[in-house]
Amino acid sequence: MTKPGVRSFIFLAAVFIVAMMINQHDFAEFLPNSLATQIGHNRESLGFVLLMVPTIQWFRPWAARQRYEVVIVGVYGLAMVLFGWWMLHHSGWSTDFTTYSESFFAAGVLAWYVQPRRPLRWGPWMSLVMFVLVVVFFNTDLVLDQAEDLVMIMLGPVAFDVFDRRILDRSAPDRPGLRLGWCVSLVVAWFVFWRLAAIVRPDLAGSIDYGIDYAYRAAEAYWGILLVHIYFSYWLGRSWLDRKPNAADPALASPPNGQESAQTATA
User: Fold this and answer.
1) How far apart are CA 107 and CA 47, in angstroms?
2) How many domains does the chain have?
3) Residue 69 class from Cβ within 10 Å (0-12 exposed, 13-18 middle, 19+ buried)?
4) pLDDT tens across 17-72, in order?
5) Which residues form the domain of 34?
6) Is residue 267 situated within a structural domain?
7) Best exposed site among 7, 49, 93, 159 by fewest CB in 10 Å?
């Protein structure tokens, strides 16, 4: 696998440190309790980033070069899902740590999704399928308890195969306006559902109220997907978006925009 560059190390180390500070309740020592609590509620998004970034940047191209790619990816994703299940049900750890099981569930499933070569025309339909499944089985324990990871899985296909295709496909057109609009919409969605949830939560009644509450409980999904976009498309930026095609990328017929694609895949 390609060794991580300095910028990769800085970003992932910063995310890890913030996650540990949340687990140690350090933010409560110098931030207002309400803000510290709000940050703490979104820790699963950090766990998701710590799993999903290495999966896309290093594991995906490495697995693409292996003879038994499908088996390797299948085991890799399943291992994350099973570890998340073990964390949640058998680890005996405190909730400060078992809550990261949702990060493992989402990253494990999306590891299977991101591996196939692009373009993946049917990919975005998976978001619609996930939405329908959540609606149909809304009152089940699985859907109610796993809001964060289910919405991460729901958002992943449209994030990677509609709004920011260059993350997984070097040959895809780069559309910075579309990407930025999507990133802004994730923040707006969090803010809107946050404020609406504050209104409906004192007296939840009816499908709309419960839908708003569910969408707000899944806030970690918005932040997790957003951080993946920030890392690849803004933090690494052109060094990733204009990377030399790796084993998981379709071959380029010609460099986009007439530019040479000699930049490396890591920062």
Assistant:
1) 9
2) 1
3) middle
4) 999 988 888 888 888 887 787 788 889 999 999 999 999 999 999 999 999 999 99
5) 6-243
6) no
7) 93
